[in-house]
Amino acid sequence: MATLFFISTYYLLFPALPLYLTEQGLDKFTIGLIMGTFSVSSLFLRPISGHLIDLKGRKGIMFISIGSYLLSPLFFRLGFGTLAMGAVQVLFGFAIGSFTTAIATYVTDLAPREMMARFIGWHSIAIISAKGMAPALGLAVAMRYGFPVVLGLSILVALISAFFVHRLEEPPLLESKGASTSIREILTMKMILLPTITLFAGMITFGAINVMLSLFAATRGIPHPELFFVINTLTVIVTRLVTGRLPGHSFPAQVITAMIILVSSLILMSQVQHFWQLVAVAMIYGAGYGAIYPALSSLLILYIPDHLRGTALGIYTSAFDLGVAAGAALAGLSEFIGFTRVYLGISLIPLLGLVVFITLYLPRIKRPAGNSLPE
């Protein structure tokens, strides 16, 4: 519930803020830069907040995140210039990025090894639900009552999330048995870097397909593209409920299967011309997207030292943001070479991610020494 409510805070504002900034006289390019600041700040601040999570604890960072978010109304009082609104997005990026990293680490602390993917999958459903429901609610409220009411609702939801965080029990800090490890050293650890590269390659597909879907549908003359998101989201949820019950030794096979599906989805998407084909891709892509994150995240957690979980997840989840942004940027090349060539070209990236996973990461986790996958 804490995740559902706090993630909803930003996504209530997400569709309403650009409209409000337009009313204040800002142009589309400036608004795009302002909104993009959120992803950039979240990307760079996640590893830092992850390191703080390992040092200071999970709940403390959650409360700092909520407190940071609650400061945002002060920036709105400074005006609606690029600098002030950019500062708001940096604050939002830190708050959402650090909160999701902290609570994801908390979930892995609670999860038994044999149920790691199930716990991660269930928790991620709360994030999916928030991202799916909150924008629709925020836009509806903004259209009827105006942006200030949406902002007030967002603050109220943040306070509710603080109530649920307060009720969480803080797990004991996991201390290192040796010398402390710097962020720079953690960044170069193969057991963190390789799954991070794989996740980045997989999330390229999300940016390429989901972010550009409305333009793709308009170009191909396909009606009701919004149904893609509904069908895709339902498929993701069902997939995570199902794969969460699979045994731990199947994690590598789940990742390989998911990456193959993601590659196939881009190839199929390049050929879509009709609504029924779009629906089919929504389900196929949803299965791949739904399976990749819990399985790959579980492998990451199971094969790193426990006291580095926060930092590792901060680095790892940054690949999600970067992949989505890169996918959207690459899909923008459709302006020059068309969606068919763009999607076929982008499909090579998750294919390379699959090669990295099979040839470089799998041999490391199959070594007899160290942790092993739960049955």
Written overview of the protein:
- The protein has about 375 residues and is an all-alpha fold.
- The chain folds into two domains: about 160 residues, MFS general substrate transporter like domains (Growth Hormone, Chain: A, Up-down Bundle); about 180 residues, Growth Hormone, Chain: A, CATH 1.20.1250.20.
- It has 17 helices and no strands.
- α1 packs antiparallel against α6, α4 runs antiparallel to α8 and α7 packs antiparallel against α12.
- The protein is globular and about 55 Å long.
- The two termini are about 30 Å apart.
- The mean pLDDT is about 80.
What keywords describe this structure?
375 residues, Growth Hormone, Chain: A, 2 domains, 80% helix
